[in-house]
Amino acid sequence: MLNATANFLNKTGLTWFVPFVRLVQGDDPSAQIKNILMMIGVPIIAMALFLGVWHVAASGVQTSLGAIPGPAQVWEEAIGLIDEHHAEREKAVAFYERQEKRNAAILERNPQAEVSIRPYTGKPTYFDQIVTSLYTVFTGFAIGTLIAVPLGILCGLSKMVQTAVNPLIQIFRPVSPLAWLPIVTLVVSAVYVSADPMFSKSFIVSAITVTLCSLWPTLINTAVGVASIDKDLINVAKVLRLSWWTKVTKIVLPSSLKLIFTGLRLSLGVGWMVLIAAEMLAQNPGLGKFVWDEFQNGSSHSLGRIMVAVFTIGFVGFLLDRIMHTLQLLVSFGENEQ
Amino acid sequence: MTHQVQKPSHSAIKSAIRGIVASTLIAVGAMNAAHALPEDVEKPDLKFGFIKLTDMAPLAVAYEKGYFEEEGLYVTLEAQANWKVLLDRVISGELDGAHMLAGQPLGATIGYGTKAHVITAFSMDLNGNGITVSNEVMEKLKKKLPLQPDGKPVHPIQAKYLKEVVDDYKKEGKPFKMGMVFPVSTHNYELRYYLASGGMNPGYYAPKKGDTAGTISADVLLSVTPPPQMPATMEAGTIYGYCVGEPWNQQAVFKGIGAPIITDYEIQTNNPEKVFGVTKEWNDKYPNTHKAVVKAMIRAAYWLDADNNKNRKEAAKMISASNYVGADYKVIANSMTGTFEYEKGDVRQVPDFNVFFRYNATYPYYSDAIWYLTQMRRWGQIAEFKPDSWYMETAKSVYRPDIYAEAAKELIAEGKMKASDFPDFATETGFKPAQDDFLDGIVYDGSKPNAYIDSFKIGLKGKDEIK
Prior knowledge:
The complex is a heterodimer of chains A (about 350) and B (about 475). Helix content of chain A is about 80%, strand content about 0%. By secondary structure, chain A is an all-alpha fold. In chain A, strands 1-2 form a two-stranded antiparallel sheet. The radius of gyration of chain A is 26 Å and the shape is globular. The two termini of chain A are about 15 Å apart. The radius of gyration of chain B is 24 Å and the shape is globular. Chain B is about 40% helix and about 15% strand. Chain B has a 5-stranded mixed β-sheet with strand order 2-1-3-13-4, sandwiched between helices. In chain B, strands 10-7-11-6-12 form a 5-stranded mixed β-sheet, sandwiched between helices. Classes of the chains: A mainly alpha (about 350), B alpha/beta (about 475). The interface between A and B is medium-sized, with 27 and 37 residues.
C-alpha cells in the first residue's frame, strides 16, 4: 500500500508529497523530515531569495513606463486581471439578456422571423487568452505528432528513407518560427478560403506554425528509437514471419515508445515557446497577443501585466512538461524502475 | 375604477383629436422607420478593426453605449498591428470594416500600394494629431526660437526654426530622420506640409520607378512606424521626431522623451482625419448593414461632442481600457478634454483638438477627398498630371455622402437626431467653401485641384514627373 501510493506520486510528478505520505504512515520519521526539508525547504528558501533580489533590484531600474514592478505590484496586477475577468463575464450575462429581449421584440413584430442568440462580442479576458493558447498549441502539436511519428518510424526502419529525409530535417529543424510565419500566413490566406470558415484563419496560421517548428524532436527521437530496437526482437519478428503491420504495432512501436515520448515531450515544449512568439508577431489571439498589446498600450500597468503573462507562460509550460513526463513514465512501465 | 359618467367636455374632445393625430404621426414615423428594423440587417455579426488611437472613440462608444446593438448589429472590435495589416484584412474580408486613414480608401482605389475599391460614408473626426521631436532636438530648437516672457516657446513653432536645426544636422553629415505612420496617411501629408512650409523638401515618391520610400531629393528622411511604437522608436534613437495621432504625442511628454512642437489643428484648422472604410463589394452586398453601422456611429460621434464635450471624461475612461487604446487615462484625457501639454507643465487650451461631430465633422466631403489627392500628386504618389475632372470622379467613387444622408434621414425620422444637426442635404454639394486656414496662408478651393497644386513652392506641379 505504502509503496503503491509513493509509486503513484512519483509517477505523476508529485514527488514532493512522498515524504509526507511516508511520514503519516510512520516510516522512519527522522529520515522523512530530513527529506521534506531538502525537497521543500530548499526550493522555498531559493524562491524567497529570488523574490527578495527581484524586489530590491526592480525599484532601481527606471524605464520610460516607470520603475520595473516588484513581486507585490505583479501580484496586484494578477488580481486586477482576475477582477477584469469577472467584470467581463457579468457584461456577457447582460449582453445575452439584452439579446433575448430584442429577439422577443422581433418575434412580436413578425412571428416568422428567424432569431438566434449570438456569441458575446466583448473582449477576451486573460483566462480566455490562456485557453486559446492552450487549444492552439495542442492542435499544432497533434498535427505535428501525426506527421512526425509515422515518418519517424519509416526513417527508423528503412535506411533509404532515413538518408532521403535526413537533409530536409537538418535544414528545416533550425528554422525560427518568425521565418515560417509569413510563409504560413500567405499560404493559408491563399488556400483556406471559405465563406463561412469553421476555424478562424489566425488559429490555423498559429497552429501550423507550431506544427512546423515542433515536429522535429518527435521525428528525430522516433527514428532513433526505432533504429535502435534490440536486433533480437527484429529477428524474432522474422522467425515468426510477422506481417509488416503486426511487426510495427507489436514490436517496433512498444519498444520505441519511450524515446517517442521523449521526443513528444521536447516537441510540446518547443511548440509552447514557438506559439507565444507567433502570436506576438502575427497578433493572433492568445497570450502572445496579450503581451504585445500591453507593450503597445504603454500604460502604467503594462509592465506588471506583461510580467504576469511571463509567469503564466512559464507555469503553463511547466505543467505541460509534467503531464508529458507522467505519460512517458506510464508508457515505459517496467523499464528503469527504481 | 370609477363609474361616474362624464359628459365629454370641449377640451376632452380636443385632446382626443390630438391623441389620434399624435398616434397617426407615430404610426407614420414607425412606417418610415420600418425599413430600418434590426432584422433587416443582412449581416448582424461584424468584426471591425482599429488602431490604438484616441480617434477610434466613435467605434468604442457605439459599442459600449449599445448603439450598434440598437441597430441589430453584433460588433466585435479588434485592435490591429499597423495600418497595412488593417487595410489588407478589410480587403481580404477578414474584417468587415475599419477605422482608416482618410488617404487609405483613396490610395487603395487609385491603386497606390494595395489595389482595391474601398469606400467611406463616414468621416470619424477632425484634428487629433501632433508633431513631436526628441528632447535633444527640442533643446537645439529652443536656442533658435522666440520665447514668451515666461520662458516658454511661442506656439505654434514655425517650421523655419526647425529648418535651422535640420541644417545643423546636415552640416555634421547626419541625415535628419522622422517617422510617420503610413505612406498615404494624414500624418505623412501633414508632416510634409509643415516641413515644406519652412522651406524643407520632405522628398518625392516615384512609383513608376518602383520607388516607394519617398525620399528622393529629401532634406528630411521620413519613414513608416506604426502609431503605438512611435515613442519607443524615438526613444531608441532611430528617428528624431514623428507625426502621429493621440495619445502618442502626449505619451512622449509623460515618458519625458520628447515634446510636441505643433498640433495639426495649427497646421490646418479642423482638418479631416480618420474615416470609416469598407470595400465597395461589401457595401453592395450589405447595404442595410452599412447604413445601420453609419447610423450607430453618427450617434456615437454626437454623444462625444454633446453639451460642450461633457461626456469626454467618460469617453477617455472608456478607451483607456486595455482592449481599446490602453494608455493611461491621464495621458488620453489630456487631449480628449480640450487641452494639450506641449512640455511637462506647459498645458494649453486647444478646445477643438479632437472634434467628432461639430462642424459637420462626420459628413464625408468631396473637397476633403480631393485635398488628399492633391497632396498625393504634390509628393509624386500620383506620378503624372491628371485633369480636374479625374480628381472629382475619384472623390465621388470613394466618398459616399449619399449613404451618409440616408442614414442621417432615418435617424431624424426615428427622432434620435434633429435635421439641424446635419448639413442641409437638399442643397449640400459636398464642397466646403474655399479654405484659407492653413498655416502657410495658401487658399484651398476643392473645385480647382490643379490650380491648388500649382500654388505650392515645393512639390510637383503641372506636368512634372520624377525621371
